[in-house]
Amino acid sequence: MTSETLQQVQVTKGRNITGWVLTGLVLAGLMLSGLAKVTQAEQIVEALGNTGYGGFIPLLGAIELAVVVLFLLPLTRGFGAFAVVAYLGGVIAMEWSMGGPPMPGIALSVLFWIGLYLRNPHLFNAR
């Protein structure tokens, strides 16, 4: 696609709704995960306890909740999108460092990027 074509892409109501649904699924997952970390749910403590991050579980949860809030607030949405992607990059790195497949982090990242693209194709305009 040329830059002229990308500028002409109209964000229809269906694209906007689909984009928000995909983005919302990712944000809901981050919110639930963040709440579980802040409240130190037993399964989360067990899973992250032997990673070396055991003492930081509530802090990680607070960061997770903060990036969701930053994205949901219209004034900080751009920074929030960057923060969500950065956090998910950390999720991927942690999954890889623990020897497991980083598929959950990659799947959430892909869904988030597709949701952003559907709602804001002009952000992906290469000039």
Keywords:
single chain, 127 residues, mainly alpha, 6 helices, 74% helix
List strands and helices in order, with pairings.
Elements: H1 3-8, H2 13-38, H3 42-49, H4 57-72, H5 77-97, H6 103-119
Helix pairs in contact: 2-4, 2-6, 4-5, 5-6
Q: Mind explaining what this structure looks like?
A:
- It contains six helices and no strands.
- With 127 residues, it is mostly helical.
- It has one domain.
- Helix 5 runs antiparallel to helix 6.
- The mean pLDDT is 89.
In summary, what is this structure?
The protein has about 130 residues and is an all-alpha fold. The chain has 6 helices and no strands.
Overall pLDDT = 89
Number of strands: 0
Beta-strand proportion: under 5%
List low-confidence stretches: none
Structural domain count? 1
Radius of gyration: 16 Å
Number of helices: 6
Instruction: Please give the largest β-sheet.
Output: none
